[in-house]
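Quick start: what a row looks like.
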Amino acid sequence: MIKKFILLLVFVNFLMVPSLVFGHGLGQSFQQVVGEYLVEFEYETFESLADEATPYVFRLQNNETGEPTAFESLLVRIVSEDTNETTAVARLEEDDFLTGVSRLTVLLPEGDYAVDMNFKNTEGDTFVEAEFEHTVLPAEGFDWIPVVSAIVGLIVGAGGLKLVEGFLSKKNGSKGKTK
């Protein structure tokens, strides 16, 4: 029974390998130092595709200590670089559970964008400003990256499971037989 439990734990751990290798999942993360702060802009998909909801995450932290920096609100403005028109604008509050973090999900058409961020303090004054370039690609067919990642995870997990099972059976002298 213990042997089966250990094998199950090893198998589950190997399934987690892709998420450990890709620290931000399959998303993209961009950082910019502004004075004493580090501003991070990330999206939780491998690429941002036109007319698909893309979750964006905005982080603010102290550049020297790495500690999250609290803010009252964040003004995000997404401007099309092709037409110079504001495509989206939002005033976001800091996340209720994570200091220095805000989130926004938005659908954007294909194109190149400037993502302007203004972090505001309790008086409503901007204390950190940052701008990131962002490209939204045309939506094209099926996204194979999550499928390939899952298959690789399963193969690695199955191989690891076989290695552990072989090791345990040699150690117990049962030559692969389980009870």
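That is the whole record. The chain has two domains: 1-26+145-179, 35-141. The first helix runs from residue 2 to 15.
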